Amino acid sequence: MHDFHFKNGELCCENAKVSAIAQRVGTPFYLYSYKTLTDHFLKIQRAFAPLDPLICFAMKSNGNLSVVKSLVELGAGIDIVSIGELGKALLAGADPQKIVFASVGKTEEEIAFAIETGILLFNVESEPELAQINLIAAKMKRRVQAALRINPDVPAPTHEYTNTGSLKKKFGIDLGTARRIFRTQAQYSHVKINGVHIHIGSQIIGPRPFVGAIKKVADFIDGLRAEGITIEYLDIGGGLGIIYKDENPQTAQQYADKVVPILEKTGLKIIMEPGRFIVGNAGIFVTKVLYVKDNGLKKFVIVDGGMNDLIRPMLYDAYHEIVPVAQTRGVPQKCDVVGPICESGDFFAHDRLLPRVKKNDLLAVMSAGAYGYVMSSNYNVRPRVAEVMVRSSKFKIVKERETFKDLVRGEKIISW
Ligand SMILES: *Cc1c(COP(=O)(O)O)cnc(C)c1O
């Protein structure tokens, strides 16, 4: 599943000792395994081989240039959600014809830049957005391709904040409106509506929500075809769940077994947008114990990483396994693992059984490769941490830790 394991009582990433890396780069930091991340991509590629889909890595889950580059080298396309991500995807060498662009609020500037770049598809999330893209494309004397992001209104059993496939959420276009847009598409003379897109949510463990949503849009596409409206692409989004605690998520192959037959029948070119599945278990967050305190009621392990570095526990009530980097014996004790930030939401774990740890011990927060660094901030004027990648026994810094200069860049003390 991943390449973080204990060897002689020491946590290793592939063949590199985590403690040795910590000594060189300082703490806290994110650590990625090249092998894990590329293996996960290849697993999807193999499972879906009968369809030869375009696998667009959802770079909002991890936008590090070296991470993106590692996947681009294997033939990955990129699913972007902003002009910034488009710029980084291009820097990482992504082929514009393998880039798809989703976002409920694409700005004029973003649309123009994406047209100029020549991306494969705009995944359009509303009718006014389609009109806007058409207008800008007309001005630029270009014709672009779009897919309509359908909100299939299916239940997705995941956290409220990662559920996107219900009409109570802002995402996509309802089926009725989408049908009307397809029927009246002639008015958008600079946009070829050439696909349908869905993305129903994230960290989805079983196949049922995917199957339900895909069947629903497959029927929708059949209906269009009966009216003589044809498209080329079906983008089934991302959302595959991973193991954080004791989940038993479908494998790429199990997912493929369920959905490939339905997708095959559509005869369309398939696009996928996995994010978490590729990078989630390919990264850990390494942090150092600063203090241990016991207030009589609770024991707190205070570490040098905080919610500004990894916000998932606070934002989604997410569970991350936490292990000491050097295995220790002794009876596990219940404690809260918390950061230094002035917020009660600044925690990595509540009432967690951990072996006894002491000052300067290193802890690894597992499965932190997705929605980790990318959601980090400078709250409390804390520099963003370093990112490191391991390949076999070698490690390289793939993003430098921010300095004080970075923290005040662009800021001015003015006088009136
Ligand atoms: C976030 C997102 C993804 C990736 O979701 P994962 O759960 O990380 O696989 C894919 N497509 C779209 C449109 C997204 O917003």
Question: Could you characterize the architecture of this molecule?
Answer:
It is globular and about 70 Å long. The protein is of the alpha/beta class and 416 residues long. The chain folds into 2 domains: 4-32 and 280-408, Lyase, Ornithine Decarboxylase, Chain A, domain 1; 34-276, TIM Barrel, CATH 3.20.20.10. The strands form 3 sheets. Strands 4, 13, 14, 15, 16, 17, 18, 19 and 20 form a 9-stranded mixed beta sheet that branches. Strands 5-6-7-8-9-10-11-12 form an 8-stranded parallel barrel, surrounded by 4 helices. α5 (108-117) links the parallel β7 (99-102) and β8. It has helices spanning 18-25, 34-47, 65-72, 83-91, 108-117, 127-139, 175-183, 208-226, 252-266, 276-279, 312-316, 404-408; strands spanning 4-7, 10-13, 16-17, 29-33, 54-58, 77-80, 99-102, 121-124, 144-149, 191-197, 233-235, 269-272, 283-294, 299-303, 322-324, 333-338, 347-354, 362-365, 386-391, 394-399. It has 12 helices and 20 strands. α2 (34-47) runs parallel beside α9, α5 packs across α6 and α8 packs parallel to α9.
Give me some keywords for this one:
20 strands, binds pyridoxal-5'-phosphate, Lyase, Ornithine Decarboxylase, Chain A, domain 1, 416 residues, TIM Barrel, 2 domains, eight-stranded parallel barrel, 25% strand
Question: What is the CATH topology classification name of the largest domain?
Answer: TIM Barrel
* CATH architectural category of the largest domain: Alpha-Beta Barrel
CATH superfamily of the largest domain: Alanine racemase
CATH class of the largest domain: Alpha Beta
Total beta strands? 20
Strand percentage lies at: 15-25%
Structurally, the number of domains stands at: 2
The small molecules bound here are: pyridoxal-5'-phosphate
Low-confidence stretches: none
The major sheet is characterized as: 9 strands, mixed
Q: Using the CA coordinates, give the radius of gyration.
A: 23 Å
Mean pLDDT: 96
Total of helices: 12
Structural class: alpha/beta
